[in-house]
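Lecture notes, continued. The same structure-token format from the folding unit now serves as the input rather than the output. Read the line below as a description of shape only.
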């Protein structure tokens, strides 16, 4: 039925048939959602009803969409003035009263993700990344340092999901005596739908047992409605906050930038910029990242999922699309309120197909927070240094941030001044390093990587103490072999393969 609905032609009779089919799908979905709500207690039913209203809007739009969301021929590069170089914004300097600007800011971290891809249970933000500090520890330290340095009160807001909320709240107790006010709100909980019937697979409102795979958090584009529904949006506006700085909690480069904040605050009232997206120059490693384009006279985020198959290679090229979205965003709170009230936030739907453990094919309907850029006035991009994009998605990323390439100061990581090149080494660790616990067990301590350009490690490999890696190093242990890099070894532009065991005697 899913295929028949989406694949129909646009003829008159067919359109009428299509319309009936669409209504039928929406009515069936509504009935199923009401039946699910009847299994919840009163308080849960109240909040879930709001979630379901959001889901039904998304579902309605999903059924309306015909063909790709962009016409390739209408895509243009953004005009020069709409993506400013960071150096130009920094050249303005800072006012004497930067604390006045800070008093109008709140920091929002997207904290809905689990650490499962790195072999951890619970919220990803609770993984230790540096000197026993978790992502959350580092975030709290950064904001506390800001508040102490400028005698201000920038609050931290965490957007949790139903997957991360309980564990995160337990941990927040430990920050009670830190100089930072922490608020949380939950993003929505949406039902996964069967790809064929387009109906929810959940049997009731529980999130465990047979229902564990029935629900999902619908991407970070949900921030606008869930922030508003939680009451926190109005609370912050009442407290005089004007902007939020939004970023992923696993991006260790996403600290509050005073120059960008000052730029926002210094705009004339009638030309206030309501949305800044931080972008940075694309490298070969970033070819799948979303990019900014000009489309129908608006700045717009173009994600790889929206690109017609025939143009994917063009999208990935570093020459045509030179920048990508870091997901560090500065957004006006009054503008969010206005657009929410008018129901005027327009974000493309991302259809995310999944296959569950039992083999069932389901669909998740999601949106991206940056996709709303086209709905805001005077939106712009700022081309920031690469150092503001330091995500930790894999153990390869973790190795970099744990190494002497970076120094840690007040929760912020900065590239070591002792490194001659400002670029980050390219690190590829094999499947034996995927899980954090296993990764840690393979290093007696983290090697010296100050002069490293490229590291590839594959197979059963361990590193002794005080190993030094320079230039291009490739270490490959074939299946059944093991390589122990001895303590104190210095590998420079070396390929190590075969079998190397060092045994105590």
């Amino acid at each position: 039925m899913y295929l028949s609905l989406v694949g129909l032609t646009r003829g008159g009779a067919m359109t009428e048939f299509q319309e009936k089919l669409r209504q039928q799908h929406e009515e069936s979905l509504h009935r199923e959602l009401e039946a699910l709500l009847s299994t919840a207690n009163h308080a849960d039913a109240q909040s879930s009803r709001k979630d379901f209203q959001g889901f039904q809007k998304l579902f309605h739009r999903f059924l309306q969409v015909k063909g790709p969301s962009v016409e390739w021929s209408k895509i243009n590069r953004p005009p020069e003035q709409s993506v400013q170089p960071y150096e130009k914004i920094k050249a303005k300097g800072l006012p004497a009263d930067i604390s006045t600007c800070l008093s109008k800011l709140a920091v929002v971290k997207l904290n809905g993700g689990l650490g499962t891809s790195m072999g951890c249970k619970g919220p990803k933000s609770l993984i230790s990344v540096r000197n026993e500090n978790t992502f959350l520890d580092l975030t709290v330290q950064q904001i506390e340092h800001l508040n102490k340095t400028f005698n201000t009160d920038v609050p931290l807001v965490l957007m949790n999901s139903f997957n991360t909320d309980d564990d995160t709240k337990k941990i927040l107790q430990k920050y009670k005596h830190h100089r930072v006010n922490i608020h949380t709100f939950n993003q929505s909980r949406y039902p996964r739908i069967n790809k064929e019937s387009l109906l929810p697979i959940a049997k009731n409102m529980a999130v465990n047992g047979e229902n564990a795979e029935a629900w999902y958090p619908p991407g970070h584009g949900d921030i606008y409605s869930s922030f508003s529904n939680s009451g926190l949006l109005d609370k912050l506006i009442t407290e005089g906050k004007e902007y939020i700085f939004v970023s992923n909690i696993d991006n260790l480069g996403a600290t509050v930038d005073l120059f960008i904040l000052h730029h926002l605050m210094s705009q004339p009232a009638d030309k206030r910029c309501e949305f800044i997206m931080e972008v940075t120059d694309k490298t070969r490693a970033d070819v799948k990242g979303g990019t900014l384009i000009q489309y129908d006279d608006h700045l717009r985020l173009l994600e790889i999922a929206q690109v017609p198959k025939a143009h994917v290679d063009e999208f990935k090229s570093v020459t045509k699309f030179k920048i990508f979205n870091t997901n560090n965003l500065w957004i006006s709170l009054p503008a969010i309120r206005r657009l929410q009230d008018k129901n005027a936030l327009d974000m493309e739907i991302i259809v995310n197909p999944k296959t569950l453990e039992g083999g069932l094919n389901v669909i998740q309907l999601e949106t991206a927070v940056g996709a709303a850029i086209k709905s805001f006035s005077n939106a712009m991009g700022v081309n920031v240094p690469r150092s503001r994009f330091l995500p930790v998605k894999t153990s390869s990323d973790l190795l970099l941030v744990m190494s002497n390439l970076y120094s840690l100061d007040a929760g912020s990581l900065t590239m070591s001044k002792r490194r001659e090149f400002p670029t980050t080494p390219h690190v590829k660790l094999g499947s034996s390093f995927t899980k954090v616990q296993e990764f840690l067990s393979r290093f007696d301590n983290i090697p010296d990587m100050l002069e490293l350009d490229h590291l590839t490690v594959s197979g059963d490999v361990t590193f002794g103490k005080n190993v030094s890696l320079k230039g291009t190093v490739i270490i490959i242990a074939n299946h059944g072999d093991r390589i122990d890099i001895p303590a104190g070894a210095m590998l420079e532009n070396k390929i190590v393969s075969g079998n190397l065991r060092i045994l105590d005697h």
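Point for the exam: The two ends are 69 Å apart (CA to CA).
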